[in-house]
Design goal:
The complex is a heterodimer of chains A (111) and B (114). By secondary structure, chain A is mostly beta strands. Chain A contains no helices and eleven strands. Chain A has strands spanning 3-5, 9-13, 18-25, 29-37, 44-49, 53-57, 60-65, 70-75, 84-92, 99-101, 105-110. In chain A, a hairpin with a 2-residue loop joins strand 6 and strand 7 (60-65). With 114 residues, chain B is an all-beta fold. Chain B has no helices and eleven strands. Chain B has strands spanning 4-7, 10-13, 18-25, 31-37, 44-50, 53-57, 64-70, 73-79, 87-94, 104-105, 109-113. In chain B, a hairpin with a 2-residue loop joins strand 7 (64-70) and strand 8. Chain B is globular, with a radius of gyration of 13 Å. Classes of the chains: A mainly beta (111), B mainly beta (114). At the A-B interface, strand 4, strand 5 and strand 10 of A face strand 5 and strand 10 of B.
């Protein structure tokens, strides 16, 4: 099976930088994805790491260390609209892209 | 078009009713998924279809019956549900193989079982 750990809540101020960590234990690890979900909305794909290192997409970056079973999502220049839940998701090695989601981190951005 | 649509948005049903949830995508994705999400919890995978064939069933009770009539449509047939089945039901789609890590989610159907 798979297990993922991420902090339940994070609070930061507008303009700041925040890092959301995710550690995982799984067999057949293929990659780590990050999704954002606003209250009442659907999850939206943010980033994916299949190899070690940093992936950058605008204000969001994601990092993976396969040897440490660890990844993080880095959000820069925080905006109020970034207040949402953030899920890391482990993809196991199947063609259909089966993913198991962590419990989620609720990010609150304050003015 | 990068949209996954789901109908209905809200559904209230009794424990003896039969209803269906519908999902549609026109992105040419050949993998489609059903997830269940309770409040303040992550999405939980229920079923995966790959090339219109059921490839994963996460030990879901038989009162949930998925169907994939073609590559664009995914249904979830509901029968004799329990109040604890009340949740947000999310449909998602993705490519198969390379690129399948990025799943596109629909807005969900909020189901209440009375």
């Amino acid at each position: 099976g798979q297990s993922l750990e991420q902090p339940s809540e994070v609070t930061a101020v507008e303009g700041a930088i925040v890092q959301i960590n995710c550690t995982y234990q799984t067999s057949g690890f293929y990659g780590l994805s990050w999704y954002q979900q606003h209250d009442g909305g659907a999850p939206t794909f943010l980033s994916y790491n299949g190899l070690d290192g940093l992936e950058e997409t605008g204000r969001f970056s994601s990092f993976l260390s396969r040897s440490d079973s660890y990844g993080y999502l880095l959000l820069q220049e925080l905006q109020m609209k970034d207040s949402a839940s953030y899920f890391c998701a482990v993809r196991v090695n199947t063609n259909a892209g089966k993913s198991t989601f962590g419990d989620g981190t609720t990010l609150t951005v304050k003015p | 078009d990068t949209e996954v649509t789901q109908t209905p948005k809200h559904l209230v049903m009794g424990m003896t009713n039969k209803k269906s949830l519908k999902c549609e995508q026109h992105m040419g994705h050949r993998a489609m998924y059903w997830y269940k999400q309770k409040a303040k919890k992550p999405p939980e995978l229920m079923f995966v279809y790959s090339y219109e064939k059921l490839s994963i069933n996460e030990s879901v009770p038989s009162r949930f019956s998925p169907e994939c009539p073609n590559s664009s449509l995914l249904n979830l047939h509901l029968h004799a549900l329990q109040p604890e089945d009340s949740a947000l039901y999310l449909c998602a789609s993705s490519q198969v193989g390379t690129g399948s890590y990025e799943q596109y989610f629909g807005p969900g159907t909020r189901l209440t079982v009375t």
